[in-house]
Amino acid sequence: MNYDLATIWAGLIAFAVFAYVVLDGFDLGIGILFPRFARGPERDQAMNAIAPVWDGNETWLILGGGGLFAAFPLAYAIILPALYPPIIAMLLGLIFRGVAFEFRWRDPAHQPFWDTAFTTGSTVAAFAQGVTLGALLQGITVAGRAYGGGWLDWLTPFTVLTGLSVVVGYALLGACWLIVKTEGETERHAYALARVLGALTIVAIIAVSGATPFLAHSYVQRWFTFPGVLITAQVPLLVAIVSVLFWRALAAHRRIAPFGLALVLFALSFIGLGISMFPYIIPRSVTIWQAAAPEASQAFMLVGAGIMLPIILAYTAWSYWVFRGKVGEGYH
Amino acid sequence: MFAALDPILLARIQFGFTVSFHFIFPSFSIGLASYLAVLEALWLRTQDDAYLDLFKFWLKIFAVAFAMGVVSGIVMSYQFGTNWAVFSDKTGPVLGPLMAYEVLTAFFLEAGFLGVMLFGMEKVGKKLHFAATCMVALGTFISAFWILSANSWMQTPQGYAVNAAGQFVPGGDWLAIIFNPSFPYRLVHTVTGAYLTTALAVGAVGAWHLLRDQNNRFARIMFSMAMGMIAVVAPLQIAAGDTQGLNTLEHQPAKVMAMEGHFQSHKEGAPLILFGLPNQRDQRVDYAVEIPKLSSLILKHDANAPLAGLDTIARDKQPPVPVVFWSFRVMVGLGFAMLGLALWALYARLRGRLFAWSWLHRAALVMGPSGFVAVIAGWITTEVGRQPYTVYGLLQTAQSASPLAAPAVGASLAAFVLVYFAVFGVGTWYILKLMNEGVHVDEPDLGDAPIRTAGVTPALQVQRQGQPA
Description:
The structure holds two protein chains of two kinds. By secondary structure, chain A is mostly helical. Chain A contains 14 helices and four strands.
């Protein structure tokens, strides 16, 4: 019974993380791309495309972190100290990003400053999240029930690569979201950016996928032996198909398809990640069962999650529905 | 540069700093969300647009305060892991689910409906919009419920077992964990404190504008509502504080000893020390001004009841007495000052001078920030008073920390201090600016905030800002 619960919770946390990545991903992406848009209506439209929803999007990050603390406290207690500097950098980045939404309107004289804070905060947070992912993949030194390494162990060329990759990927999501939500000059701009960022994201996926097997032999085994290979073999093929569809959607000036296809790219990468890690929560050191909280804790939370998650998804969807359509309608 | 310092001390300073700063915002937004719901309800019921203008005015302030609460709150949810890894590993099975429930039942609710509350009036209509406002207000309360339950469990743990790995695990009855002995008292005292804090802030804004113009209708409404609220809530809060004190005496006597400055045990009635300089090294209060037997009368309802002192607690298990002693006096002193303000306002109302008595308005203005100070002082009293433990009597603070290097903690502490003072200082300045501007007839939809509805162009917004108030 406990085994099943741990797997369910691993799945739920993975879902929360993925929801965070795609939802706040486009928020942060718009922050990253902000300097590419002209001051005035272009930037205001870009900001307005996410202002009503960013807070809800960010909440998935708290569910991911809080869920890890609750369901896998040992993993939470090892991973966060190991990644201390990037986590703190992410939190500080998110502070600047979050307040910029309100502050830039409160103080027009200093709007350029808060716009810069918006971009810097978004970029730092995205980069730090990428570094966190990379550091997790490359492995964390565990001693007993604690982190056993130094405070800069996370910094390697690989983690810099994953950091940059996430920045590029989020920027792609941001550009695609702007295609959905804006019109006029902002929209044209977003199409152009999406083309470049789509190419860069594919390069990033290839680079990270190419580098991962060199991190540890276990990844080679997982990817290229039965039954993992059955899935791994499909991923490059699917990425290629999705990429072609993505460019065709951009060329045809489709409104929602580019965002949807970018999501599929992220989902494929996420599945690849799952194959690489499961059932470890800290690769090669701690499995989800070793890190799991007792059955009584996980079961108690599962009741709440089972009831609340559908309700949350329903009112979140309603909120997106309320603010559907282009934000620019009515400017002219 | 930080290598010589004790990483645990740095981690404690960092956590204390970030949690104190964070606590300011929810203690405002809990009360303000409810106040907004009341204003909107009054508008819907009376159709008087003054309430709508007031609603829109406070909504702008709420948006800024809420954003600061959110971003400083995320820091908290990760700091348990970054700085207090051993604590997280050991308490995760018990405290983790409480926090997970907070996220699932409160954070999503607030965030999900905040967008509609801030920007959706024209899109969803009045009634649905009011429902969204109520959901946000409900979310702030549910959030307080869970986080205070978790905090209270750390103060008065029950319903747990300890497993082979040394973790606290649920003992079978979650209700015993959630409704641990200090939780109901702490919840009432804290949430009432948030309402009082908000009422004092609203009252000060009303007073500020009454000092400029006694006939300002918006200022009159705000001032009257706030003073009425304080008259009800301040006495309740003093009573709630008293019962929480009695509960603390039962479960955490050392904290009460530190609050009272009782280094010595008293067999026949302990004195109430009004003021003095606690001297922990020599275990006495220097220059104490005391009222004989009053402490026993308050705490035991019997002037001659014996009361144990810190001489019954080992030196290394005592909380830092001076901090607790002073923060407690600041809180209580401000509480009675609030009661005094409420009584003065009540007297002025009965005499028909509520809007004309400028000294009352000045006093209300001075008392504007007192709620925040009292809330922080109360927080310091309860959190420093439970030292040296993170889980009271079971897990010491010194054994809770992450295996971190001092330079990492020191650098991040410096970054937090700089960023918090800069960012939240500026945010507070913006709030004060909005408060100073006051309410206008036909208050614009969230004014010059990021409006997503049709027809409002940023150019117009900037122009509006440029106009004289």
